Prior knowledge:
Structural class: mainly alpha
Number of helices: 4
Oligomer: single chain
Low-confidence stretches: none
Radius of gyration: 27 Å
Amino acid sequence: MKRPRRTFSAEFKAKVAIEAIKELKTTPELAQIYQVHPTLIGLWKKEFQRNAAKVFDSGKDEAEQLRKLQKEKEELIQQIGQLTVDNNWLKKKVL
């Protein structure tokens, strides 16, 4: 019978990747300890190293998103105001 596919949490992947980066144990040793394939450890290590810089840029990204959301909010408030004026004008024309 086939074994069901396992999924690993981000925390687990990070833990294994950090262990691999430390190089205190070989990849096959880590694979045996954590019961994952050595190829996975190599992939997680590469991905971890590739995305490490994003940890320090997170504040900038959040600030940019906040500015975009604030601008979008102001535009929506302006649209609501314009629609309210148009609605009131139409109500007066009908009566």
